[in-house]
Amino acid sequence: MEATKHTTTIDWIVKETSYTRLCSTKKILTVNGLYPGPPIYMRKGERLNIYVRNEGKYNVTIHWHGVKQLRNPWSDGPNYVTQCPIKPGASFTYEIVLSNEEGTLWWHAHSDWSRATVHGPLIVLPQLGKTYPFPKPCKEVPIVLASWFKGDVMEIIETALENGGEPNKSDALTINGQPGDLYNCSKQGTFRMVVDYGKTYLLRIINSIMNEAMFFMVAKHNLTVVGTDGAYIKPIRTSYIMIIPGQTMDVIITADQSPSHYYMTARAYYGVVYDNTTTTAIVQYSGSYTPPSTPSFPNLPNYTDTNAVTTFTRRLKALATKEYPVNVPRHVDTKMYITVSVNTRPCVKHSCDGPNGSMLAASLNNMSFVEPKIDVLQAYYNRIKQVYKPNFPNKPPYYFNFTAENLPDTLLTPERGTKVKILEYNSSVEIVFQVTNVQNATENHPIHLHGYNFYVVGYGFGNYIKKTDRNKFNLVDPPEVNTIGVPTNGWAAIRFRADNPGVWFMHCHMDRHSSWGMNTVLIVKNGRTRSTSMMPPPRQLNPC
């Protein structure tokens, strides 16, 4: 059946295209010349082939963020994890295999920092004859939040990794490719969303920003959040949202204010280094009226408003109905406690740009991930030795007060290597992520797991205390997501069933942290039958 069923194929060309932003023109990597890239619309359960030809000057791969790709890690995308990159002049055909995902997902490059401009929406509509678990909106509008760098993004990260310091932060944040009215030379291009009074609209919001979690508001309008990461939630009525890198949200807005112009705005929730500019678009009512000299501006939460982050995040609960059930594992087979840290590594003659002449690094359980020379999936499938080690630790090498202030900078020098965690098929897994304050570098870490959605059963501030915190886990209606914001100086607990065999990347979606090694790989073994085993590889695999 898999081989005979007809699947549509669409063609993409990755190429350099000139774009002008912030008063200057530069060439950026795009798909089919578009920034943001072309939206994909599919229905729940469908398949789609995408032929990607690389006519750019850098290696590239594409990841379908939030698509589980059941049994099909070959098309998942992260370079040197599930495939060798598509080199300039080469091509690769991805197969997108949908299962129970429904809502807003997205796609992006998964090679170095090329995703800064190579990204776009992947919208999964209900099956034909089905509808949303909320009143059908008048119109749907993708809202893609992104970063704009005046320099070449690939050179920015290459320079930072060579010198060991922080990469340059972005020069602007954008909504649907446009910085908005508050930046130089940008007013003319500002994205405008035209609305009719009294009608409702579904905003499909995607945070494709490189290194910032974002607050988002529309002046004088309430928002109703109905979904996140391709799964529905109990509707939340709110004046603002907080959305982390990699995350998506389905948000309903009703045009119920006096016909006028209103700013749609987004700005960062603080980190160690962050872009503190504000991007804007305009919600513009149709009809005849005198437009204001300046659109109304919303009162966004302050950059450092952790309380606003927590208040919003605590309200996210799964829909948990008969049609959209929750299946949280009650019994757990594999427990992992993973520390999330920014570290340093020694530098020859203390001559690097990190703290005290060191090189910045990052780790999970003090393991800083190193990309292998050939991808982990090929090595696993073909039993090629010495590509990775199957001993990623279940717990940190030693315990201390992880969230204390002014910890010694040298407390954690990470081990570097390509270590993976092996999971039995269909085992139930619990992972508690614990942020550490080494380097005084605690921030909200968006951890993304490929190949899975998982349930966020608990989170809190300070150190995770198993005896007391475990008793507070939500096993009734926890949100089902693919990216979790582990709180600043806190912890988050997730659970899932390892029922998707394959090789799956798990990493921080702040790209500077991922570049420094805040990653690992989960390998889920095959089950006992063909339908519970990985698909065989496609006929054409790119060489490394």
Fold topology:
Layout (H helix, E strand, L loop, with lengths): L8 E13 L2 E8 L8 E4 L3 E8 L7 E4 L25 E7 L5 E7 L9 E7 L13 E10 L4 H11 L8 E4 L16 E4 L4 E8 L5 E6 L4 E6 L2 E8 L1 E4 L4 E7 L6 E9 L8 E8 L20 H8 L20 E12 L13 E6 L2 E3 L6 H6 L33 E3 L2 E4 L4 E8 L9 E5 L4 E8 L4 H4 L10 E2 L1 E4 L3 E8 L4 E7 L2 H6 L2 E6 L20
Parallel strand pairs: 1-4, 3-8, 9-12, 11-19, 20-25, 22-23, 24-32
Antiparallel strand pairs: 1-2, 4-6, 5-7, 7-8, 9-10, 12-17, 13-16, 13-18, 14-15, 14-17, 18-19, 20-21, 25-30, 26-29, 26-31, 27-28, 27-30, 31-32
In short:
The chain is mostly beta strands and 544 residues long. Helices cover 6% and strands 38% of the residues.
Which strand-content bin applies to the residues?
Answer: 35-45%
Oligomer: single chain
Strand elements, count = 32
Which whole number gives the mean pLDDT? Answer: 95
Stretches where pLDDT is under 50 for at least 5 consecutive residues are: none
User: How many DSSP H or I helices?
Assistant: 5
Helical proportion, percent range: under 10%
The assigned structural class equals: mainly beta
Q: Main β-sheet: number of strands, strand sense, barrel status?
A: 6 strands, mixed
Strand order of the largest sheet: 10-9-12-17-14-15
CA distance, first residue to last residue? 32 Å
Radius of gyration: 22 Å
**Mass-distribution shape:** globular
